[in-house]
């Protein structure tokens, strides 16, 4: 008997495809997270660079011209203004302001802003004596009205001092687009190495996954083959035992029953009627046990299915039950076309169900039903006996009914079939096998 593959059978290709799909999703999720983290980090780095640039401009470019005299109209302010316009203002830095600690603008490249006063915020107050700080410009604030036409800006402010020690706040307004472009450059430099590493790891795992899946498949095939060989060995051993019973024990007991009948006749002739009666009773009992043994022989060693077919084999099983006084109903479709493997699987299920009826059910009526239902071939063995114990009965417990049916359930799974075992509402139990019709049609 070969084990057919189910519609969703495990294959290395299917396993590797599922693994690669899951891996692709994982790489996509991790990659997206990496991009978001890198974007956040590069934005922070770009802002840090903007702060560093402002510190250089304030201390190296502007500081030599930032005198007490430059904070009032005159040649010193003009020199400061020329230095700012020549070395600070550019396509990215669009505005410069120098604030007094009370919020008065002492210098700006926009002369109209000089002398205006706006309260300094908490961050600006801290920046007077602390490290450089940066923030997105609030273009709706009164002190930023003159910068609205520039669009989104980044304010960077830093505390500076005049030669006399007066504390001032140096502030630049930079186009935020320049910060974004700087962030993008940093991202482009960092991203290929990180995503490339993820992609390389993903690609390295693919052949390893295929190798592992193939080994698992080989191990599964070896288990299946060992299982099939075990069943075949069990079949051969049952046939050997059945042959020994039929040709040895059954024939010997039958011969003894016939000898007892002859001896009883001789005892009658000799006038020993009591002995003759006892011998006849023993002969009747022996013939009863001969019938029982022949029934067991038929159950143990079924007829050759390929020679006679599934329906005649079911009739033979039914006869073993009738011989025990059990009413049997056969509802089978003689026109069903079934391949050899499906035929053997169906008969095994019917045979195991029959054994359970004989051993455990104490049934008085058994129904064998073989029909085609939609896209399935259905074999059912239904009895009116004691049913299954409650603790072993349930829709998820396919293994109830003994080790034989549990093994057959495994074979059914591998063949893409379904084995159902449950109690009937009206009493008794039902064993039902469903086989896909298309996979059961002879080639």
At the first level of CATH, what is the class of the domain at 24-183? Alpha Beta
What form results from the Cα inertia axes? rod-shaped
Q: Treating each run of at least 4 consecutive H or I residues as one helix, how many helices?
A: 10
**Biggest β-sheet, characterized?**
5 strands, antiparallel
Strand content: 15-25%
Strands in their spatial order, largest beta sheet:
2-1-5-4-3
What is the C-alpha radius of gyration, as a whole number of Å?
48 Å
Level-2 CATH architecture of the domain at 24-183: 2-Layer Sandwich
Q: What's the total number of strands?
A: 10
Q: Could you give the distance between the termini? A: 16 Å
Note poorly predicted spans: 1-8, 391-400
Plain-language structure description:
This protein is of the alpha+beta class and 443 residues long. Among the domains are: 24-183, Beta-Lactamase (2-Layer Sandwich), CATH 3.30.450.20; 305-443, Heat Shock Protein 90. It has helices spanning 12-62, 75-87, 122-129, 176-269, 273-300, 305-308, 310-322, 340-361, 403-414, 437-440; strands spanning 93-100, 105-108, 133-136, 153-161, 167-175, 327-332, 365-373, 376-383, 418-423, 429-436. The strands form two sheets. The protein has a five-stranded antiparallel beta sheet. The chain has a five-stranded mixed beta sheet with strand order 6-7-8-10-9. The longest helix has 94 residues, at 176-269. The relative contact order is 0.08. The model is unreliable at 1-8 and 391-400 (pLDDT under 50).
